[in-house]
């Protein structure tokens, strides 16, 4: 592989892996704190493997589908109009919900950094985050892929700084937290959400251009990087905070880390969320633009301001949002990916027998999350 091809692979991996390492990361220590690290680890490895398989299946589907299309168009080609309708609804709702979740966490990070100096509460900085993200969504995919690469690199650096500063506060006893039975299935939605990056596989394929044969390797690398970062981050933050951990993980760690390292961590946390916010925003804009032939500027306006509207309506609980998106809407997308994969394979019966257990898992997750939502919301 020459330098040019290697550069393409790095940027393709950056945008997929960098987008996966997004806002879901900050929910994981909180989730582990509710059930104990041992059980969380089982969930994490099993569901991480599940999502990795789904991404590889979707990678094969992407290679069998024309370029410059997005998920709903894939479903139309392989599953017909009904598949397209289900896919469109699920993708758009999941992306809208994701943009809200990113703005909530990224806005709170900004609030922690700047409100002591400039004043203003979380609400003001979340609104600022929305408008900043909307402005940057005008940039093209190449600029974002480079931003993802450096954002991911800087956040990994920040994690090591946090680890060095907080090692004296780390308590292994914090990893052995007693399970609350009500939270037994809590990790399912957030972990699926945290590991999901299927919409960006099409973007990675575009970056590779004529070198699409490397897509499978890009997907594998893009899953391994988040797995390592997530485990390290979860163990570190849970070991420091225990049951007192906030849903946004880094919030309220100033007394442990000291003001300088705390703000560095928050700043790089913000960079992690904003790069993924932009990448997902671009994906959603292209869905409206490419797949539905909506005017480019109107597509941008829908992408940027519909999530803001729903945030203002009261959709403001970070954990609830990503749990429901992960279990229900990403579960639906997972099922659709499996059905599309079945369509492109010649040995249909064998493929169906191998993939039906995956569909069953997603169906159970959807049913659980709806029941939980109806009982506890």
Any chance you could write out the topology, listing elements then pairs?
Blueprint (H helix, E strand, L loop, with lengths): L2 H18 L7 H8 L1 H27 L7 H48 L3 H15 L4 H26 L21 H8 L5 H8 L6 H27 L12 H4 L1 H33 L4 H18 L4 H27 L3 H29 L1
Structural overview:
With 377 residues, the chain is mostly helical. The chain has one domain: Up-down Bundle (Amino acid/polyamine transporter I). Helices cover 79% and strands 0% of the residues. The N and C termini lie far apart (53 Å).
Labels describing this entry:
14 helices, mainly alpha, Amino acid/polyamine transporter I, 377 residues
| Low-confidence runs of at least 5 consecutive residues | none
Shape: globular
Question: Biggest β-sheet: count, sense, barrel?
Answer: none
The overall number of domains is 1
Secondary-structure element series? HHHHHHHHHHHHHH
> What name is given to the CATH topology?
Amino acid/polyamine transporter I
Radius of gyration: 20 Å
Q: CATH superfamily, called what? A: Amino acid/polyamine transporter I
Percent helix, as a range, is over 70%
The second-level CATH architecture is Up-down Bundle
Question: Count of helices?
Answer: 14
Percent of residues in beta strands? under 5%
Summarize, please.
The chain is an all-alpha fold and 377 residues long. 79% of the residues lie in helices and 0% in strands. The chain has a single domain, classed as Amino acid/polyamine transporter I.
């Amino acid at each position: 592989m020459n330098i040019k091809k290697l550069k393409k692979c790095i940027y393709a991996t950056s945008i997929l892996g960098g987008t996966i390492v997004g806002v879901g990361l900050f929910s994981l220590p909180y989730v582990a704190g509710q059930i104990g690290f041992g059980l969380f680890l089982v969930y994490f490895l099993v569901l991480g493997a599940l999502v990795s398989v789904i991404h590889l299946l979707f990678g094969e589907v992407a290679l069998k589908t024309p370029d410059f299309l997005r998920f709903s168009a894939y479903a139309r080609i392989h599953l017909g109009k009904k598949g397209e309708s289900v896919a469109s609804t699920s993708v758009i709702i999941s992306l809208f919900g994701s943009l809200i979740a990113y703005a909530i966490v990224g806005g709170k990070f900004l609030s922690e950094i700047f409100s002591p100096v400039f004043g203003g509460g979380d609400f003001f900085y979340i609104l600022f985050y929305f408008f900043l993200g909307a402005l940057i969504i005008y940039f093209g995919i190449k600029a974002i892929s480079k931003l993802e690469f450096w954002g991911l690199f800087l956040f990994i650096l920040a994690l090591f700084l946090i680890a060095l500063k907080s090692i004296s506060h780390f308590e292994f006893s914090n990893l052995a937290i007693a399970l609350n039975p009500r939270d037994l299935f809590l990790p399912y939605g957030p972990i699926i959400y945290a590991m999901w990056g299927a919409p960006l596989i099409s973007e990675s394929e575009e970056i590779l251009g004529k070198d699409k044969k490397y897509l499978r390797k890009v997907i594998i690398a893009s899953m391994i990087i988040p797995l390592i970062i997530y485990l390290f981050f979860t163990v570190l933050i849970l070991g420091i905070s225990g049951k007192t951990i906030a849903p946004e993980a880094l919030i309220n760690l100033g007394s442990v880390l000291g003001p300088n390292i705390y703000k560095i961590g928050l700043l790089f946390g913000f960079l992690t969320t904003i790069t993924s916010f932009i990448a997902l925003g671009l994906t959603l804009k292209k869905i409206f633009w490419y797949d539905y032939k909506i005017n480019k500027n109107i597509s941008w306006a829908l992408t940027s301001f519909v999530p803001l509207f729903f945030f203002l309506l009261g959709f403001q609980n970070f954990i609830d949002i990503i749990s429901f998106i992960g279990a229900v809407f990403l579960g639906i997308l997972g099922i659709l990916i499996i059905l599309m994969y079945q369509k492109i394979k010649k040995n249909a019966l064998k493929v169906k027998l191998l993939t039906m257990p995956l569909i069953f898992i997603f169906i159970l997750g959807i049913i659980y999350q709806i029941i939980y939502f109806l009982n506890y919301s």
